[in-house]
UniProtKB/TrEMBL annotation:
Name by which UniProt lists this protein: 8-amino-7-ketopelargonate synthase
Catalytic activity: 6-carboxyhexanoyl-[ACP] + L-alanine + H(+) = (8S)-8-amino-7-oxononanoate + holo-[ACP] + CO2
Necessary cofactors: pyridoxal 5'-phosphate
Pfam families (UniProt xref): Aminotran_1_2 (PF00155)
Organism: Brevibacillus brevis (strain 47 / JCM 6285 / NBRC 100599)
One GO process term, biological-process aspect: biotin biosynthetic process
Record keywords, A-Z: Acyltransferase, Biotin biosynthesis, Pyridoxal phosphate, Transferase
Family: Belongs to the class-II pyridoxal-phosphate-dependent aminotransferase family. BioF subfamily.
EC number: 2.3.1.47
Length: 385
């Protein structure tokens, strides 16, 4: 892996106490954080931190057992009722994290003899859930509805059929064609599951996600989302009809055979949900910053998608170039990591920039200037073309 520049290393963040979440300290050096999923800056909101402290004081530090044993503290009920109301669905179920939600839900709802149609760029947790389910796995080309329809027609006879997609793709920052997916769901009598990990908090009137923004949430059989990104905390949830949620309570192995979340996490999630619903200015700010950073990069000659999401990839291709680029960014005071295979397809290594609501215009302009200087340096040295 080292020879192919694929071995991973991580940095120790020595301080993340900056209240906006936009600056971190690594190796004694302050870095502008352009790689955080804390899109709304809620991870450092003191109301959320305090709510976690209060929940820990009242309920203790640990979940103590699976929810099906005695880990199902009343805080869970409150959170799930509020989630269901927010998402306008009959019921909700909280999981430990997004990885466990996707693996647990897909493996429970699909099985041998079923078919799952999954976008080629879906998150790894979706892929792993399908593998665990033992259903037939059909990967359609990214956002290619013709290819999906071709596969749906070809495998019409599967016992039960699911289409699964991210709503905003985690490494590309583009959106799934949800309106068309809903049409195919209806036409081919399939079920549809949408992972809103990167859209929750960021899209929709009250941050419910892209399905709500487009008015199709009622047509999605399972809406999944996380608390780990725009909510700034930890955990995940699915919202669906009562019957599906009740089934998952018994059948989702990642829920049944794992300890309940620490009460502090649930307390913080409750506080974060309130702020996500009310603070629409944060959503506006992150969208404006996304548009601005994309435009700034374009004005310096970079190729950047016409999108409005906070995930902004700069695809360089080669693993080694991308590592070099990321290293130089760090030397110049910017934290933005190199994303390499297998997280992204071979030959598409990239710097994945993410912007947050609290980034200022000056910070983004300065960052863009650094990105373009590094490109010029590496081009001169013949490292990148
Ligand atoms: C689209 C998507 N789904 C699921 C997950 C997993 O969520 P979590 O980090 O809460 O495990 C992530 C993020 O890592 C993601 O990007």
């Amino acid at each position: 892996m080292r020879k192919q520049s694929l071995a991973r290393e991580w940095n120790t963040v020595e301080s993340a106490s900056d209240r906006t979440g936009t600056w971190i300290q690594v190796e004694g050096k302050p870095l502008l954080n352009l790689s955080s999923n804390n899109y709304l800056g809620l991870a450092h909101d003191q109301r959320i931190v305090e709510a976690g402290k209060l929940a820990a004081e009242e309920w203790g530090a640990g979940g103590t057992a699976s929810r099906l044993v005695h880990g199902n503290y009343a805080l869970y009920d409150e959170l799930e009722q509020r989630l269901a109301a927010w998402k306008e669905r009959e019921a909700a179920l909280v999981f430990a994290n997004g990885y466990q939600a996707n693996t647990g839900v897909i493996a429970a709802l699909a099985g041998r003899g079923d078919a799952v149609f999954s976008d080629r760029l879906n998150h790894a947790s979706i892929v792993d859930g399908i593998v665990l389910s033992r259903a037939e796995h059909f990967r359609y080309r990214h956002n290619d509805m013709e290819h999906l329809e071709f596969l749906l027609k070809k495998h019409q006879d599967a016992r039960r059929k699911w289409i699964v997609t991210d709503s905003i793709f985690s490494m590309d920052g583009d959106k799934a064609p949800l309106l068309e997916l809903v049409k195919l769901r209806d036409r081919y009598d399939t079920m549809l599951m949408v992972d809103e990990a990167h859209a929750g908090g960021v899209r929709g009137e009250e941050g419910q996600g892209l399905c709500h923004e487009l008015g199709i949430a009622g047509k999605v059989d399972v809406l999944m989302g996380t608390f780990s990104k725009a909510f700034g905390v930890y955990g995940a949830y699915v919202c669906a009809d009562e019957i599906i949620i009740r089934y998952l309570m018994t059948k989702a192995r990642s829920l049944v055979y794992s300890t309940a979340l620490p009460p502090a996490v649930i307390g913080s999630n409750l506080a974060a949900l309130s702020l996500v619903q009310t603070d629409s200015w944060r959503r506006k700010a992150v969208r404006q910053n996304a548009l601005m950073f994309r435009q700034l990069l374009r004005s310096r000659g970079f190729t950047v998608d016409e999108e409005d999401t906070p995930i902004i990839p700069l695809t360089l291709g080669e693993n080694e170039w991308t590592l070099q680029f990321s290293k130089r960014l760090r030397q110049r005071g910017i934290a933005a990591v190199a994303i390499r295979p297998p997280t992204v397809p071979a030959g598409t290594a990239r710097i994945r920039f993410t912007v947050m609501a609290a980034h200022t215009r000056e910070e983004l302009e300065w960052a863009c200037e650094q990105v373009s200087v590094i490109r010029d340096e590496l081009q001169k040295g013949g490292t990148i073309s």
